[in-house]
Design brief:
eight-stranded antiparallel β-barrel
Length: 508
């Protein structure tokens, strides 16, 4: 079973002459305890092309010390990483292999570097003996493995790792003492990065593909496309780890990417991007099962919490919980099955190929502002048509469907304006904000429609179990009222959002 530990640490340069200063002079540190020397032996794994190192991920199998086993580290922020640990075994545990899939695809991971370290450990503790941080002086010996291996390097470094629950400000006070002693932060973010730099001829780690130097419509659109693809790849392991909001963010990235393909079809050849868009639609749908259930449950739970206890008849909270758990388990299983599928792997490879050889059309070579503005306005015209259709219908099922279609069109306009904001500036940003207001109102209306269906199901289940369905019927009535209120507010919201003529504003 894998476990996760949040690492907050800083690394410093050292040599044979370096001595640690008196760290009890750092604010909050009462004593420095000598914990002896540990001998660590770690083999780092990556693809032959170092795809993990390119994304600042490290995968190692380490023996020695108190945390022997497999360790996979994901960057969170500068000096902060999440370390996922699995027990020591001869082969890479499946729990970690899945977290690598979006980066390595179906390439094998192989040993690339071996690091043997003598770690001289000291604990910084407060007056109560509580551990604040661990300071280690590491003597490192690195050996390059694999094809072209054999090169070696050695160095000494100091590592200060914050203890769980300790105040991060402690790292600043310790660094102040180290700097006064002439000890400065390391130029390398990790031991692996330094080992690769010093044992690999040429460029140790493949550089991220650079953005085109020219300022064209194609360059601007591709920058946005790359941003969304990077988000999908990065969020894949977060979804597998069930991190908060990860499913939603990954789903949004797939939708933004698909929307960009549709909006900027004069820049990117749709004969290439349309099939990719269909695969992105499939992925968003598989992820959407989990996200939609999460949103729906939160809405229904909130509605129950609004009611006074006298109107909560029957075991309504228990029934909602059972309904959510049964649907939630299936939803998560659906999302994970999609990420483990061959279809998803093929999509990831297709996205890589698209970036490597983008299907640019003639407009891609033009100045970005006019091309992007025209594309956004074309989406806006489509939205305006859908809004007009929805407003012309009487309240009821057909209008619900029309408003949902308008919502999807509004989302595409907002995404298009977001993508164009780096080029068009504040007018596009303000426009996107106004359209988001319309999208939010239409989204609330659609959530109400979906909630009514769920409440009807819950009422039927309660009735079948011999329970009163009163509370579910009451909530159904409230959702009907909320939907009607949204419909009444919609015309004014649309009038406000479209009042500053978008064509004039974006054409400036």
């Amino acid at each position: 079973m894998a476990e996760t530990k949040r690492e907050i640490e800083r690394k410093y340069e050292a040599d044979d002459e370096t001595e640690l200063p008196d760290l009890t002079r750092a604010r909050g540190v009462s004593a420095v305890l000598d914990r002896g020397v540990a001998e660590l032996d770690a083999v780092y794994y990556d693809t032959p092309g170092l795809r993990l190192a390119a994304d600042s991920l490290t995968l190692r199998r380490r023996t020695g010390g108190e945390d022997a086993g497999w360790h996979l580290k994901f960057p969170v922020a500068t000096g902060i990483r999440d370390e996922i640990r699995a027990p020591l075994s001869d082969t890479l545990p499946r729990s970690l292999a899945g977290l690598l899939r979006s980066r390595v695809h179906d390439e094998p991971v192989v040993p690339v570097v071996r690091l043997r370290s003598s770690r001289d450990v000291r604990h910084l503790v407060d007056g109560d003996g509580t551990l604040l941080a661990e300071v280690s002086v590491d003597t490192v010996r690195a050996e390059r493995l694999g094809e072209g291996g054999g090169a070696t390097a050695s160095w000494k470094e100091i590592e200060v790792e914050l203890a769980d629950g300790a105040d991060p400000a402690l790292l600043d006070t310790v660094e102040k003492r180290l700097r006064k002693a002439g000890i400065h932060p390391s130029a390398s973010p990790s031991k692996l990065a330094r080992a690769l730099e010093e044992t690999t001829p040429g460029d140790a780690v493949p550089a991220r593909p650079e953005q085109p130097a020219e300022d064209t419509a194609g360059a601007r659109v591709l920058a946005y496309v790359r941003e969304q693809i990077d988000a999908i790849v990065t969020l894949d392991p977060a979804v597998r780890r069930d991190l908060p909001d990860s499913v939603h963010k990954m789903r949004v990235a797939t939708r933004r990417l698909r929307s960009a393909f549709k909006t900027y079809r004069k820049v990117l050849d749709r004969t290439v991007t349309d099939p990719v868009g269909e695969e992105l639609k499939w992925l968003a749908g598989e992820l959407g099962v989990a996200r939609d259930q999460e949103v729906l449950h939160a809405r229904l739970r909130g509605r129950l919490d609004e009611l006074p206890p006298t109107l909560l008849l029957g075991p309504v909270h228990a029934r909602l919980r059972i309904w959510d758990v049964s649907r939630g388990v299936d939803a998560r299983r659906t999302a994970l099955a999609a990420l483990d599928s061959g279809r998803y792997l093929a999509l990831l490879k297709t996205l890589d190929a698209l970036l490597a050889d983008p299907p640019l059309r003639k407009d891609a070579r033009k100045a970005p502002a006019p091309v992007l503005a025209r594309a956004v306005l074309k989406d806006y015209d489509r939205l305006a048509d859908r809004v007009e259709q929805a407003l012309a219908l009487p309240a009821g099922h057909d209008r619900d469907i029309a408003m949902h279609q308008a919502r999807k069109a509004a989302k595409q306009v907002r995404y298009a304006a977001d993508a164009a904001t780096p080029t068009l500036g504040k007018p596009a940003k303000r426009f996107a904000k106004r359209i988001k207001t319309v999208q939010t109102l239409l989204g609330d209306h659609q959530d109400s429609v979906v909630a009514r269906e769920a409440l009807r199901t819950l009422a039927i289940q309660a009735h079948a179990a011999g329970e009163t369905a009163f509370t579910w019927g009451l909530l159904h009535g409230r959702e009907e009222a909320a939907g009607a209120a949204g419909e009444r507010a919609f015309p004014d919201a649309w009038k406000w959002a479209s009042a500053p003529k978008p064509r004039a504003a974006l054409a400036r």
